[in-house]
Structure formats: C-alpha cells, structure tokens
Amino acid sequence: MTPSFAYFRSLLIAAVLASGLFACASMPPPTSELAAAQQAIAKASDADADMYAAEDLAQAREALSRAQAAMADGRAADARKFALAANADADLARMRSESTQLDAQLAQRRAEIARLQQRLGQEDGR
C-alpha cells in the first residue's frame, strides 16, 4: 500500500510544528531585553520625561510591567516583545523630553539675543 498525499502532508505539518516548538523552547529568556528596558526607563526619568513626556514614559512603564508579568508566566516571546516595546517607548520619552528642554533653551537664547540687539539699537537682527 502506497502512502497517500494526506499522509505526507500530515507528516510535513507535524515536522513544522515540532521545529516551531523546538525553536521556541531553545530561545533563551529575555533577561537582557528586560534589563535594557529598565535602563531606558531610568534614563528617561533622569531626563525629566515625567514632566515633558509623561504619556510616553507611562506607556514604557506599562509595557515593562507586561513584560515582567509575561516572564513570570513563562511566556518568553511575549516578554521579549513587551520589553522591546518598553525600551522603544522609554527612548521616545527621553528624546521628546530632551527635545522640549532644548527648544526651551533655544527660545531663551533667542530672547537674550533680541534683548541685546534692542540694547544696541539694532532692528530686525541687523
């Protein structure tokens, strides 16, 4: 009796599923991703993101919390995904905070220049 196409198809599907399970099982836990996300959140906090990018920082903290919960549940792939999202959100929060602060410094410098030009009797920046 010759094996049918359905038999070979079921063997192929079983092999693909087995290799997928093996790949997931061999993937190390995302401890470095979690640590990187924690560091990124700390850097964002140090850059006053709580004040200038609070929403982005809150998203980063929420994603980190989800990553930690997924890790505790043994869902390494989800933990990795959430940790990477937390890292990206924290970087965005830090960059927005720094950008806002630099914009404020630039506005202050321009105001100083305008005052000096006025004192010198110049108009229109000439």
TrEMBL record:
InterPro entries: DUF4398. It comes from the Bacteria. Keywords: Signal. The keyword Signal applies. This is DUF4398 domain-containing protein. The lineage of its organism: Bacteria, Pseudomonadati, Pseudomonadota, Gammaproteobacteria, Lysobacterales. Residues 1-25 form the signal peptide. Gene3D superfamilies: 1.20.1270.390. Transmembrane segments: none annotated. Residues 33-102 form the DUF4398 domain.
